[in-house]
Design goal:
- This protein is mostly beta strands.
- About 5% of the residues lie in helices and about 40% in strands.
- The protein has 1 helix and 36 strands.
- The protein is globular.
Length: about 450
């Protein structure tokens, strides 16, 4: 009997260890994990340094794999379309660090020093080239503050600094041949063709005669404080922040024909008014759009459909019908969907139709560490199948969202904690691996990205 018990215990120990390592020996990566997720672990103290740590997405456990170097306090991460490259921003040093996910090693010899902080950068293709918007970049000798920096991720160097005043957000076309650049306090979009940029410093956007006129830069007017774009084929859906960002008009969505960018007069569609527009997600013929509409957002008490809450202000979720280019939710109290306030910049849709909506700087209600009555933060979950809305009892800003096509779970990095939600119930997933519904990260969990397709 003792021998049988010992054999059973040994078998269970082997099974658990196999699951912790991925549960499969067929993975093509050095770690042999097949469902890899990275979490940017920011610094919490002088004894805990930042890096990108591996999570086994099969069972939601920390993987026994060496982390990827990412400076002292990495936060936002971006992936190339094929997920062969991951780049992260180190807030402590204003550097971009990049890694080859297929080899699970760093690209280059270290971080690439930017000219200032960045909250928007892209790796548009499988090639090790990235672009970062740096709104505070100084261009010596010119009255311009801001630039888009072109980065060689393998050589850890800046290829070119393209001066663009107050460049805040950069969006790349599918081929990476053109960049849409959004600047603070502007009603225009700057379109860059980075492939012909001058190495070192390129002044095409601020001095059209240095080099030749419009060699790199084209300015497209006709918007209302544009802040971002969702690209679909040859169409870009431009998010006009409007009043919320100091504009003179209502928030709206406008189309931009990407095929027309090489012409003297790019084709811009008529604005479609929405309640607010700082973030969006495209699904089929529906464009889900979030925002506040004004600097504060509406009083929650003024919205008939708002859930009873102690929060003062709310934000909006709109759904634009792209077949008719209309928004039935705009200025329609019977349909308006109220969500937490803050600046809305995170959105993800699970495979079973749960839309996770996140913002930064919202009003926290209650205390998740000492709950009594209502508790909520910057996260809301819309069941797109039933139309119901859930406000999880968690405080803080939402920094990262990641769903999967083969599992009904959602990873949420909120207020430094990595939560795992069961998207069949929209509650924390509780099991033997996750007794509290969280994955224990020593540092501050700033972002989360799956580097395998699963």
């Amino acid at each position: 009997m003792k021998r049988s018990v010992l054999a059973l215990a040994l078998a269970l120990w082997v099974l658990v260890n196999l699951m912790g390592c991925g549960g499969s020996s067929n993975g093509g990566s050095p770690s042999r994990l097949t469902k890899r997720v990275l979490v940017s672990q920011g610094i919490r103290s002088t004894t805990v340094f930042g890096d990108l740590i591996f999570v086994n997405g099969l069972n939601d456990t920390l993987a026994r794999v060496s982390p990827l170097s990412a400076g002292q306090s990495p936060n936002q991460m971006v992936l190339s379309p094929t997920r062969n490259i991951v780049a992260s921003f180190d807030a402590s040093t204003n550097q971009i660090f990049a890694s080859d996910t297929t080899k699970e090693t760093s690209l280059g010899s270290g971080g690439i020093q930017l000219a200032g902080p960045s909250s928007s950068f892209v790796v548009p293709t499988a090639n090790p080239v990235a672009y970062a918007a740096v709104p505070s970049a100084i261009v010596t000798g010119y009255p311009v503050l801001g630039a888009v920096q072109m980065l060689n991720l393998s050589g850890t160097s800046v290829i070119s600094t393209i001066a663009v005043n107050k460049a805040q957000t950069v969006v790349a076309t599918a081929t990476g041949s053109q960049l849409l650049v959004f600047s603070n306090d502007s009603d225009s979009i700057t379109v860059l063709t980075p492939g012909v940029a001058t190495s070192g410093v390129d002044l095409s956007c601020v001095d059209p005669n240095n080099p030749t006129p419009n060699a790199v830069c084209q300015v497209v007017p006709g918007f209302n404080r544009p802040v971002n774009a969702i690209l679909n084929g040859t169409t870009a859906y431009i998010l006009n922040c409007g009043f919320e960002c100091g504009g003179a008009q209502q928030a709206s969505i406008q189309t931009l024909d990407l095929n027309s960018l090489t012409t003297p007069n790019p084709v811009v569609g008529a604005p479609v008014p929405v309640n607010g527009a700082t973030d969006a997600l495209l699904y089929g013929t529906s464009l889900y759009v979030t925002g506040k509409g004004t600097p504060t957002g509406p009083l929650c008490s003024s919205l008939p459909n708002a859930a009873k809450t102690a929060a003062t202000y709310c934000g909006f979720l709109d759904v634009v019908d792209l077949t008719t280019m209309t928004d039935p939710y705009f200025n329609n109290p019977a349909l308006e969907i109220a969500i937490p306030d803050g600046y809305h910049d995170r959105m993800d849709l699970s495979s079973n139709g749960q839309l996770f909506l996140g913002s930064h700087g919202c009003e926290d209600v209650g205390n998740v560490n000492n709950p009594s009555g209502e508790v909520r933060g910057c996260l809301a979950i819309l069941d797109t199948n039933k139309g119901t809305l859930v406000f999880p009892p968690v405080n803080g800003s939402v920094d990262g969202l990641q769903s999967f096509t083969t599992r009904n779970v959602e990873y949420v990095a909120e207020n430094g904690v990595l939560y795992v939600y069961d998207t069949t119930k929209d509650v924390l997933l509780i099991n033997n691996f996750l007794p509290l519904g969280t994955i224990t990260v020593v540092g501050y969990a700033s972002d989360v990205k799956a580097i395998d397709f699963f």
